[in-house]
Amino acid sequence: MVKKRVGGLRWAIAILLGIGIIINYFDRLNISVAAGPLTQEYHLSATQLGFILSSYLWTYTLLQLPIGALLDKIGIKWLMRVGTVIWSIATFMTAIVSGYGLIILSRFLLGIAEAPTFPGASKATGYWFPMNERGLATSAFDAAAKFSNVIGAPLVAAAITIYGWRAGFWVTGVLSLIYAAVFWLLYRDPKEARRLSEEERTYIVEGGAQQEEQTGASTSWADTWTNIRYLLRQRKIWAMTLGFAAYGYSFYLLLTWLPGYLQRQLHVSILSSSYDTAIVWGVATITDILIGGWLVDYLIRRGYDPSRVRKTLFAIGMIIGVAVIGAAFTTDPTIATIWIAIALGGLAFAAPIGWSIPALIAPKGTVGTTGSIMNFFNNLVGIIAPIVAGYIADRTGGFAINFLVAGIVLLLGIAAYLLMLGKIEQLPSPMEKRSPAPPITTGAHRQSA
User: Fold this and answer.
1) Statement: residue 12 has pLDDT above 60
2) Which residues contact 134 (CB under 8 A, 6 or more apart)?
3) Which of 70, 66, 114, 67 has its CA nearest to residue 90?
4) Which range marks the domain in which residue 409 is found?
5) Element counts in the chain: helices (H) and strands (E)
6) What single DSSP character describes residue 191?
7) CB neighbours of 85 closer than 8 A, spacing ≥ 6?
8) Which residue in 139, 155, 269, 404 is deepest, having the highest Cβ count within 10 Å?
9) Residue 215 within any structural domain of the chain
10) What's this model's pTM, rounded to 2 decimal places?
């Protein structure tokens, strides 16, 4: 039987979101690639560099809970439109300003602007995709975070090598501004998308896509904070959050410090470190799409229990991530790159599984908030990881202990995920929890519990 084609607008939206993540991460990795010349110009210690590398995450993390509420209240389109424009300005600002404090200030602004990106992409995926395509759709934007390093690191490194470290920010700023215009013109939610055919709309809705909430004044801020308090009391939310935060520690350690580690500790040139970085993140991109996306959907379509598939593959990916410890025992750049590539390959395919869970377990009307709770704690450890790494490097004169710490954090995350999550299914809403139980009568009218 030939499968009926229902249209492909949803995949165009996935590509649009994925390109946005690529550009978004250009503006995060540029500071990492510029770590060497930046350190020389401002005479920075490793601890000070760690603060710069993590600084955009301070405001990014603080805004995760309110951003999630805003996504649920006023919608994806406008928050992400405004965000893309502001993050372009922040990137240009980094190229213009001078001094340690002003660079940190520009990274603060970048964190504010980028706060809606991942929760917004997760929420949009919930709107646009049926359940049986959710894995691959999620990996489209999650793999983009990895792929950005494959093309972004050499691009930024080339600009820095030829024109100086500020050129890396001019290049990524221009790309950000172009994407801001493209997103403004093209992104719409399904209910606003005129090019969405009725066949594809029906396919999306009947396949279990999240229902689009009415945004605006219908949800009060009191209700929003009630939802947050309710979600923070749920064991599933904490299992999801702690497991993903463990992944986030290693992810942000490598995202922020990998080029600097290769340049400072293993004495690799800026261009050579960018090539090693591209190889590592190239492996991560492939495993993200093939395992975290395609394989998850394939196994679920074959009839395997969706909850078991996601939990098993997430745990396997995290266990493979523990291979990062291997990099602690070598000073050879090639061997270190191999260990890190293996580890990040496992973590990469765990990530889209983790990002698919908020849309699967969130009570009705709280997908953005649920995703932002997870992302808040994920990025909280993202703040900690680069600073701890710099502190350890200053105190020990090397980077090895950082890989051991990352491995221990991953083991703790695996335990939380496997022991606490239970079945991956939608939680009841706070109103359902507060609804009184039906009366129990006697005799023929007795109701079962």
Assistant:
1) yes
2) 125, 126, 297, 356, 359, 360
3) 114
4) 9-190+232-427
5) 19, 0
6) G
7) 113, 177, 180
8) 139
9) no
10) 0.75
* 437 vs 382, residue with greater confidence: 382
Q: Which tens digit of pLDDT belongs to each residue from 239-279?
A: 999 999 999 999 999 988 998 899 888 989 988 999 999 99
Cβ-based neighbours of 125, under 8 Å, separated by 6 or more: 14, 17, 134, 137, 138, 141, 356, 359
Find tokens 């074959």 and name the residue: 302
Indicate whether 261 belongs to any domain. Answer: yes
**Residue 356 placed within a domain:** yes
357 closest CA partner among 122, 129, 180, 128: 122
pLDDT tens for 34-47 read 888 888 888 888 88
Cβ 321 vs Cβ 291: under 8 Å: no
Q: How confident is the model at residue 440 (pLDDT cuts 50, 70, 90)?
A: very low
Who contacts 12 (Cβ-Cβ below 8 Å, separation ≥6)? Answer: none
Tokens of 303: 């009839």
Residue 443 pLDDT > 70, yes or no? no
Contact 430, 232 (CB under 8 A): no
Strands in 192-339 per DSSP E: none
CATH number at residue 77: 1.20.1250.20
What CA dihedral angle connects 26, 32, 34 and 38, to 10 degrees?
A: 140
Neighbours of 226 (CB within 10 A): 14
pLDDT tens digits, 222-245: 777 888 888 988 999 999 999 999
In a domain, 20, yes or no: yes
User: Are 39 and 49 within 8 A, CB to CB?
Assistant: yes
Residue that the structure tokens 């997430």 belong to: 314
Burial class (CB in 10 A: 0-12, 13-18, 19+), 282: middle
Number of domains in the chain: 1
Q: Whole-angstrom Cα distance, residue 46 to residue 43?
A: 10
Q: How would residue 72 be classed by pLDDT, with cut points 50, 70 and 90?
A: confident
Picking from 225, 190, 175, the residue whose alpha carbon sits closest to that of residue 27 is: 175
